[in-house]
Queue: 2 jobs
Job 1
Amino acid sequence: MVIGVIKEIKNNEFRVGLTPVGAHVLAREGHTVLVESGAGVGSGFADAEYIAAGAVVESDKKSIFDRANIIVKVKEPLESEYALFREGQTLYTYLHLAPNPGLAKALLDQKVIGIAFETVQKDGGLPLLAPMSEVAGRMSIQIGANYLQKPNGGLGVLLGGVPGVLPAKVVIVGGGTVGANAAKIAVGFGADVTILDISLPRLRYLDEIFGGRLKTLVYNTYNVAQAVKEADLLVGAVLVPGKAAPKIVTADMVKTMKKGAVIVDVAIDQGGSIETIDHATTHDNPTYEKYGVIHYSVANMPGAVPRTSTLALESATLPYLVNLASKGVSRALLEDEGLMKGLNTAKGHMTCKNAADSLGIEYKDPKTLVAGL
């Protein structure tokens, strides 16, 4: 099998889909690994390290797409890359198709086999999404603390306060992997933390692991509205696998927030869970103000800490990639029901129901299409 590793072109995206270690593992299995020159530099991996690991480094991206059976990336392809797709090729990356009809159409038109990291499942969890959710959740508090500083337009409050001065109020909407990791950092800072979730068992679990150091609140519109009004820092951490994120926090709720409060919406990859987060921003221009509130909606937050992010991501994605390459895509999918859930497009059809529903595109059961991939 020929594996192609492409340099990311999204704004300030420094991660890479495969490290020299991963290239070594695949090369030892007898596979050819083609790496675009400079693909790993942002994460601290030089071309020479890939060559030493047994990979072939090439400067022509199109040549890699033309030859590779499987293309490995981190972020979803951008429009300038759509013309490089070819029928029957497997794309193994984050896709986030629900808010991206243009990419979905390109994958369907070119009959690409799209396997999305964010919808692969195992034991009820999302193993390929979890590492970046951990990173983004932790980053959300660092970022929020920075923008709460007055020179950055914020309220001018310290998350943890000081003796005699109350700490900042951090409200986290969503108690999954992002929310729990955001809470971990916020509690560590000494903030006054409230986390909301629809699942009472999940709230019990969070209460137990944090030992009462945060407040838990069951999700309903009244509780969300009250919590948002009091928040100095609001973190959106809501996810429905493969589906566009529901708008949990309304514009009317945002209007009640303090001037200089900060919102960080980690759900922006899936369209955002805050109504006033109406577009993704970039690391070059990460924030905008609406109703006096600072909005941060960078769609590739973990790209700012690429060394940590790349290593964490590969630890999760590499075993699946080895199986796809060594067993073949069809067999690997058929033998792993959780990996099958990662199949979003195949043979010109949408094979992820949540994404299909969000886009208004007909869904096709992936099991009917996998044979012969």
Note: The chain has two domains: 2-120+305-368, 130-304.
Job 2
Amino acid sequence: MGEVDHFSAEELDQLNIIGGGKKSSKILNIFRELRTQLLKVNKRNNFVCMISSISHEGGASYVATNLASVFALDKSKTSMLIDANLYSPSLEKLIIGDAQVGITDYLSGQNLDIKDIVYATGVPRLRVVPIGGNSEGAAEYFSSDKMLSFIKEIRSRYSDRYIFIDSPPITESSEARILSEIADVVILVVPHARATYNQVESAINIVGKEKLAGLVYNN
């Protein structure tokens, strides 16, 4: 799949995506450090990383989008962002043009190929798989053999591709718990002043310390 038009600096600002300019250099460096730590944890192999917040509107989509974008800044890497946030999908805005179908349509048994649900974005080397229009029963879709095969295929097809899953809140969604089993590592987003110690501890226990890549505090 070829590249499409790139987002301008103004469009990146409107979409809340950090770019390479000086204006967002502090935040950009934070995400670059996250990239370094993820590569270290995974011994520089490509991986599947789920990003989930502790509570609704905690900033998981923001973190997932910018982390995938930072990986794509490296011209030796590509990244894919899968929208699995059934209750608050937001990644279609990254796609240049119309997105007709997405992950839930593919998993529901429709006669679709993987290439039919992967879209180029306005960020070079970043691809998006939107949520789609068939989200009823998504918990069963995400736990299906077809979902496992999908992840295996998109991961193995390109060794330089890093996959990020934007999921619903881990403590409030069965879908997020299913997706955490599929992922290699999980990042938990903790919204500033909106999560208790017990909520954070509960989220860590759900994910498991062996799979937890780290906590990101979002203010």
Note: The domain at 9-218 is CATH 3.40.50.300 (Rossmann fold).
